[in-house]
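Q: Joint fold for the lines below.
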Amino acid sequence: MPIKEVDLERVRELPFLKTANDDTFRRLIQGAFLQRFPAGTTLLTEGDSVDFLYIVLDGTVELSGTWNDKETILALLGPLSTFILAAVVLDTSALMSATTRDRSDILMISGETLRRAMQEDAAFGFAVSQELAGCYRGLVRSMKSQKLRGGIERLANYLITQRVRQGDVETITLPHEKRVLASLLGMTPENLSRAFASLADYGVAVNGPLVTIGRPVVLTRLAKPDALIDNHAPEVMRGGGKARLEAWPNQPERMTV
Amino acid sequence: MPIKEVDLERVRELPFLKTANDDTFRRLIQGAFLQRFPAGTTLLTEGDSVDFLYIVLDGTVELSGTWNDKETILALLGPLSTFILAAVVLDTSALMSATTRDRSDILMISGETLRRAMQEDAAFGFAVSQELAGCYRGLVRSMKSQKLRGGIERLANYLITQRVRQGDVETITLPHEKRVLASLLGMTPENLSRAFASLADYGVAVNGPLVTIGRPVVLTRLAKPDALIDNHAPEVMRGGGKARLEAWPNQPERMTV
DNA sequence: TTCCATCCTTGATCTATGTCACGGAGAGCC
DNA sequence: GGCTCTCCGTGACATAGATCAAGGATGGAA
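A: Joint structure:
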């Protein structure tokens, strides 16, 4: 699948490619592939050695890990996310599997070329560091959420984050199947159902993939969102008024769709 | 506290400084401080803006996060670990608090200088990327352990990792108080006690900070260690023989003490 | 020595979460 | 319509983990 001019322009706008000089950019693109995959395609299995940096141009990619016949989803990535960057930088094997959830257009950049470019174009190398730092901080946030909050609280905060991202609407649309969401939030589908049921007391009404947040203030009081865990970018949080809610800066961090 | 020549040599050996050119190294050190802190000193509180990259030269530093009056330990760092690198690279505020657990010697490098150096010395910038990538992968491992394993399994794997790192000895020494270990493993101290008690059936005997692993094979059968979760570097795993145990490469990743 | 503080352990109990089983709603198909 | 499939919700139950309370061990400090 040829790389279209319009795709190139989109990719060029990625933060970690924006500061690269034209020469670096050209080199990276020259050895790159753009491929369209159907839903459910396994792009990478954990343990595989990694030859490419992947960039989601369209669709959704799920990053997951397994152990002892159990599986968990670690992140869901939408357009213009990179993944497997850390493994590429270290030229080692992947710790996570990557699977498409929708039909997806994926740009694959040669890992070898990327590493060489980083060592020759310092501005580009710095931008990659920033991208990695963003991924790292995204994971720190997930980890804190996982260890410090209970299931209902994780769900409540997820809903609030979605609400902000979807433009403070009253009714949000869950972007994924509920069993996928359950795994991302670290619980079973059965428990997610029950968590939704519990949130009815806080003004949350569920209708298929549509979730109406009738009393955002009440839900927020339960969720206690925190700027150091929840990344509500690009919108800024209003209301609430507690210490940590006062300043809610945009974080240039990876967003988990 | 003046920076001694011997300290400089140790710091120079850090992977992420080894490839830096002499000029870069000199510049980084020039604006650096070496400070000795007593145990229990808070170096950084989550939310603080970050001006320095920290490097543990001696002692132990705990990275923790809080929410809703609960606290959890995210990592315990020993000598020659860096921390808060991601926040420095992005010039943003810290997501974790950092506290000394022992008396500790900490080298502090100006964040501004570091960022400038990265953009001027591509080899150095690349090395920082590798350091960040290692931190990221360490967190991915923790996350998988947290979401996929139960408390007893997490403890069992912790013990096996310690055994490998301490040189395959029969009796290992827990490097931290048990309540600290409990928080790191994501459980309460009470539950850690009970988890130790359960492991008695698998040949584990506890005596204060000394833990004797009488039947490593039996414990390993329970723990099911996995190269994609547990980082047993620098030693290589022997025995076991299951698929994923065959190759257990040394991972150049951050080690959580 | 006695006192006190800290850390750890243990038992009783409660809560959260996982597991198993079942049934309904809806989509696609013949 | 009737079939089958997947996803979702729900009840009954089992298990893991948290909480509360108490007490034992240890190691200073007076």
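Q: Anything notable?
A: Residues 150-152, 187-188, 190-191, 194, 208 of chain B lie near DNA strand D (CB under 10 Å from a C1'). The CA atoms of residues 54 and 108 of chain B lie 5 Å apart.
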